[in-house]
Amino acid sequence: VQLQASGGGLVATGGSLRLSCLVSGRTLGRFGMAWFRQVPGKEREFVAASGYKIYYADSVNGRFTILRDNGRNSVYLQMNTLKPEDTAVYYCASTDSTLATMDSSLYDYWGQGTLVTVSS
Fold it and tell me: 105 by DSSP, 3-state: which?
């Protein structure tokens, strides 16, 4: 199973971006999928997850939406009303079950990361 994240870039405060995560090696199905982010020097932080349930970090709830497209075997992170503190490398991840969790240690597969920079 391979995950390929894309869609990062530079955006002004208040702007929007949509990140994509293409899954190869198996069908997306109902496997748990998530987005995490990491700032250099800090621990990886949970952003959103979709599986049996959908979860969002408090810091992004109401601004970010995790979307699944089984036809394209892809998961997306729609990010609106971006803030400078959203600047990070964003990673997609997947479990081998329908589990969706905020615990990064429970994910089996990770994409390579895509950089999001929000200018103030």
Answer: helix
Distance from C-alpha of 61 to C-alpha of 41, rounded to nearest angstrom = 24
SS3 104: helix
Dihedrals φ, ψ of 39, to 5°?
-100, 140
The pLDDT, as a whole number, for residue 52 is 87
Task: Give the whole-angstrom CA distance, residue 97 versus residue 108.
Answer: 10
> 46 vs 26, 33, 96, 107, CA distance in Å?
24, 12, 18, 12
Q: What is the torsional sign of CA 33, 65, 86, 112?
A: positive
**Four-CA torsion 24, 70, 86, 98, nearest 10 degrees:** -80
List residues bridging with 69 in a β-sheet.
74
Per-residue pLDDT of 26-79, as tens digits, reads: 999 999 999 999 999 999 999 999 998 999 999 999 999 999 999 999 999 999
**Which backbone phi and psi does 84 adopt, to 5 degrees?**
-55, -35
Could you report the per-residue pLDDT of 7-30, keeping only the tens digit for each? 999 999 999 999 999 999 999 999
